[in-house]
Write a structure and sequence with these properties.
Layout: H1 11-41, H2 51-84, H3 89-110, H4 117-139, H5 145-170, H6 174-179, H7 181-202, H8 209-230, H9 233-238, E1 246-251, H10 269-277, E2 278-281, E3 284-285, H11 291-300, H12 313-319, H13 332-338, E4 342-347, E5 364-367, E6 373-376, H14 383-392, E7 398-401, H15 404-418, E8 424-430, H16 476-506, E9 514-519, E10 524-525, E11 531-532, H17 539-542, E12 543-544, E13 546-549, E14 556-558, E15 562-563, H18 567-574, H19 589-593, E16 604-607, E17 617-622, E18 625-630, E19 636-640, H20 656-670, H21 677-681, H22 693-699
Parallel strand pairs: 1-8, 1-9, 2-14, 3-15, 4-5, 4-8
Antiparallel strand pairs: 2-13, 3-12, 6-7, 9-13, 10-11, 16-17, 17-18, 18-19
């Protein structure tokens, strides 16, 4: 080894470096592509590969190879006189490659928003370790430099696949890791075989090859064994259960009268087919006109509290933290999981996170952020390169609101594949057609001044709601354009629901499973001179679709008004679970199974208006008469929905007897539980609260 530092003939090292430049650059490009894919898979919206992304990834890899070849050649030209002729060619080549990698990653990190020191350290350390491996291995003198280059290329190519498999299993979020079990297993088998052959060939001339081969074989066995120990235990547990399955699908901000299944303008063929198999509820009412109180009441089968009358908006904002399910109650998901059911919940509204309690009992969960920008394009699997391309030439990358519906559908389909032999309770909550409105081009029917619409987040450049959170003055043409986007979003959401139903049908489980579809609230688009939701209790905000189908439920139409407070007791009875003592709702199963046995009509109540309402409100619907009461001013509105479904004519002045009767029912109902946050705080037991709700609401523009 003493001759390593002596000058050698110039043509030899130069030719060796030139010949080895491409393999070395390919190795560096493979490593760069590996880190790109790890970051991509850890992203919020990763849901598999599209054909365009496969082509883009291959193109990105070729670009990395060309870039490393160019930079390595430049380094060789600059430093060959000083370094290249005094050390072995492969060591010089490795040095040039390491310097090239430093330049490339310095550029990529410069364009990476939110660069993290841990990621920088990990990538730098990996390149350094890889560089030292290539230097030290041939320096032992037992492996010729030429053979070392080929071995390292083969071993590294196989190692990339194996490392990616391990990264997917151990470094991704749990919900993504579970979704990748099957693909990773398929990828690991050929990678392990390829790597084993490379190790066998590389150690053929070594004295201690038996020990090295044994250790390599042990590693190749232990890695998948560790992965198997981490993931599938719950799958085996779930297979022990028995009973009918339940697919519970909800769409955020979906008003009933917009869907074609309710004779609305938005085509909903999937919901139409579902209604042909089961019960369609013509008058289904949410418990509140916005997400948090609506879902908290639905899952706990209890009425949500209202904000304190007379308080200022600052106090109302603080009171929002009490919208969460009481931890003392056992959810339907918890009880089914104890019976061996596979339970999963995937939501596109990140307000429905663990803090609210609605996910309690669901084993497989995923909550995604729909208002965060998503960069889409052929470089979607190469986010480092995509960030640089977006900064240098924005036309190459499209930045738009994230399409969480696509992600949710893939998560749900993966869940159905994983537990195809087990009973399940799967809840999928699509954010569509909630804002931001960005439907696929194939469903758009109008063009307008903005490619999408988000009235609560100014970063998108669309018109914003006024300070009151409900007023938005737009010209008539722009209003029609916004409405067309909403209808297109409904069509897109219906398409996603259809994919779930088709998957169940393909597995032969659709006929034996219960399917329930509904929404948490509706959406106003200037029906009563305002926009958005949470600010009133008119029909466009509280009347939502509801369809239930499954074994023993014949096709029918239920015309009696029903409340979401009865949904959990109904689903529990369908799944043969005893009702909870604290549930305030009642089951409709008798009506579902026998349309002639109508459930006795009961008044329908709702409250829980948000801080963007002029005051807290309460609603009662009895027959066709609907009364809305302002809790601060005592204002009264009375409508006959049969004669005035658009709620244009307030009858309170001309029908005093009906007003008195309905107002008395509202007072009696309000006294039957802590109907306001203030009453809840005055109760003997301290109410549950979530400290993160205000931060989440502020992030999506609800709190102003």
């Amino acid at each position: 080894m003493a001759g390593d530092n002596l000058p050698v003939d110039e043509s030899g090292p130069k030719a060796a470096i030139t010949k080895g430049c491409l393999p070395a650059s390919a190795n560096l490009a493979l490593l760069a592509t590996f880190f790109e894919m790890v970051r991509s898979h850890r992203g919020d919206y990763w849901s598999g590969w599209t054909l365009a992304e496969v082509v883009g990834t291959v193109g990105g890899f070729v670009f990395y190879v060309a870039l490393f070849v160019l930079l390595t050649s430049l380094w060789a030209r600059v430093l060959r006189k000083a370094v290249g002729n005094h050390i072995r060619p492969h060591i010089a080549l490795t040095l040039y490659g390491f310097l090239s990698a430093g330049i490339v990653w310095a550029m990529l990190f410069a364009y990476w928003p939110g660069t993290r020191g841990g990621a920088v350290t990990l990538i730098a350390a990996t390149y350094a370790a890889y560089t030292l491996f290539i230097i030290i291995a041939p320096a032992t003198g037992r492996i010729p430099p030429k053979a070392a280059r080929h071995i390292s290329t083969i071993a590294f190519a196989a190692g990339i696949i194996s490392a990616l498999s391990v990264a997917c299993l151990f470094f991704l979020r749990p919900d993504q890791r579970r979704a990748l079990v099957a693909p990773v297993s398929l990828a690991y088998a050929p990678a392990a075989g390829f790597l084993a052959l490379a190790v066998w060939w590389a150690t053929d001339a070594l004295r201690r090859r038996t020990v090295i081969r044994f250790l390599a074989a042990a590693a190749l066995i232990l890695i998948p064994a560790a992965a198997a120990w981490q993931v599938p235990r719950y799958q085996a547990l779930a297979r022990q259960g028995s009973g009918p399955s339940l697919l519970f699908v909800t769409c955020d901000a979906l008003r009933a009268d917009a869907c074609s299944v309710y004779e609305g303008p938005a085509p909903t063929p999937a919901l139409g087919k579902l209604a042909e198999r089961g019960a369609l509820f013509q008058k289904s009412y949410a418990l509140a006109p916005w997400t948090l109180p609506s879902f908290v009441g639905l899952f706990s089968s209890d009425y949500p509290v209202g904000l304190t009358p007379g308080a200022d908006r600052e106090q109302w904002f603080q009171e929002l933290r009490y919208y969460c399910v009481n931890p003392a109650s056992r959810s339907l998901a918890q009880r089914l999981e104890e019976r061996g059911y596979a339970t999963g919940a995937f939501s596109g509204n990140f307000l429905l996170g663990p803090a609210t309690g609605v996910l309690r009992g669901f084993h497989d969960t995923g909550v995604f952020v729909s208002v965060r920008p998503e960069r889409v394009g052929p470089l979607g699997q190469l986010p480092f390169l995509q960030d640089a391309a977006f900064a240098l030439c924005p036309a190459l990358v499209k930045e738009q609101p994230a399409d969480t519906s696509r992600v949710l559908t893939k998560e749900a389909l993966a869940f159905l594949r994983r537990y195809r032999h087990a009973p399940f309770f799967l809840w999928v909550h699509y954010m569509d057609p909630h804002c931001p409105l960005n439907p696929p081009d194939r469903y758009r029917t109008k063009t307008g001044p903005w490619p999408w619409f988000e009235p609560m987040e100014p970063c998108w450049g669309t018109p914003q709601l006024a300070e009151d959170g409900r007023t938005l003055d737009l010209p008539a043409d722009d209003q029609e354009y916004v409405k067309s986007l909403y209808l297109a979003e409904i069509r897109y959401a219906d398409e996603q629901v259809g994919k779930l139903l088709d998957a169940l049908a393909d597995q032969g489980r659709l006929e034996g499973a219960y399917v329930c579809f509904t929404s948490d609230h509706g959406e106003e688009y200037w029906d009563h001179a305002h926009c958005s939701h949470g600010h009133s209790l008119y029909e466009e905000l509280v009347c939502v679709p509801l369809i239930i189908a499954g074994p023993g439920i014949p096709p029918s139409v239920v015309n009696e008004p029903v409340s979401a407070i009865d949904l959990m007791p109904t689903l529990a009875e369908l799944l043969e679970c005893e009702p909870q003592e604290q549930w305030r709702g009642s089951s409709w199963v008798r009506t579902l199974r026998d349309a002639a046995a109508q459930t006795p009509a009961r008044p329908v109540f709702a409250q829980g208006t948000g801080p963007n309402a002029p005051e807290p409100m309460q609603m009662i619907l009895s027959g066709d008469l609907k009364l809305i009461r302002g809790c601060t001013t005592g204002s009264i509105e009375l409508y006959d929905l049969a004669a005035d479904p658009q709620e244009r004519l307030n009858l309170s002045a001309t029908h005093p007897d009906e007003v008195a009767q309905l107002a008395r029912h509202v007072r009696e109902w309000s006294q039957s539980f802590p109907s306001t946050v203030q009453a809840l705080l005055e109760a003997e037991s301290p109410p549950p609260e979530s400290e993160t709700i205000l931060e989440d609401l502020n992030a999506v523009g609800y709190v102003r």
